[in-house]
# Entry
Amino acid sequence: MNAIFKHRGKSGTRLRAIRSVGVMALVLLLAIPSFARAEASPWAEAEVRALQAMEAQPPEWRQAHAAFAEAAGLGSMRAKSYLGWLHEHGHGVERDPHEAARWYAEVAGSGVPEFAVKLGWMYLGGAAGSDPVRAEQWFRLAIDAGHLPANVALASVFIADAVGGLAVERVNEACELLERALDGGERIAAFFLARLHVEGIGGHPVRPVQGAHYTRIAAEDGHAQMQGWLALMHLKGDGVPVDRSKAAFWAALAAGSDDPLGRTLHEALARELTADERKAVMERTLLWALDRSGRS
# Structure
């Protein structure tokens, strides 16, 4: 099985990890969370004015910034998160990622772990200055708070580093972080666990059965690349029994999401299956899609 990431030099490895997790991404955090707001809070009126200014056509960014600053001064964490967002994107103020990070840090420090993860990515990707040590500190703050997406975020960084030949020994910690996340319901963790067990990243043992197990979880969750992987596994008997019908089913799903491996396998299998087999795969694929839409 070819590696998902092809290393082309150590520089930029973490940035590729950010893009990768952003593909799932994230999924991992909210730009502006919804904070509970008491009706009698001293900052409520200022927040209302700020939100009204943002909803104006066109938005009145400067007024929004002024009102959020007033609310933040009165103690509103919600307003502080908005101020970070305004500075991050340059709405009503000069774009200033360092000032954005300062506001986000106040929110994260108050117990909102989503913003600790956001700060981790900002310091890792260089948006607020490249500082991998500080980035890891923010990820770990969120992990210690029980925020499972942070486990996936930090583990993905360790995996990307190992792909680039950096700190390969940390893949074992990545595996532990991911297993805890998956046990807690973060199914995206299965994608990275599959990579570890199938690709043997950083010297991690290649375990076909475990790799197929995690690949199936990710495939059943709708991850097109993992669906393509599972189709190939059923064709080759890697960690699962050889089953051309199952291979065709997973290949059809992957191809439907424009996965390159899925398209290749789907086209090849379509020529080999009998008319009855093709009909059965089509019916199963339709039922799977209907079930997914019913659950969404």
Notes: Residues 127 and 296 are 34 Å apart (CA to CA). The chain has a mean pLDDT of 87.
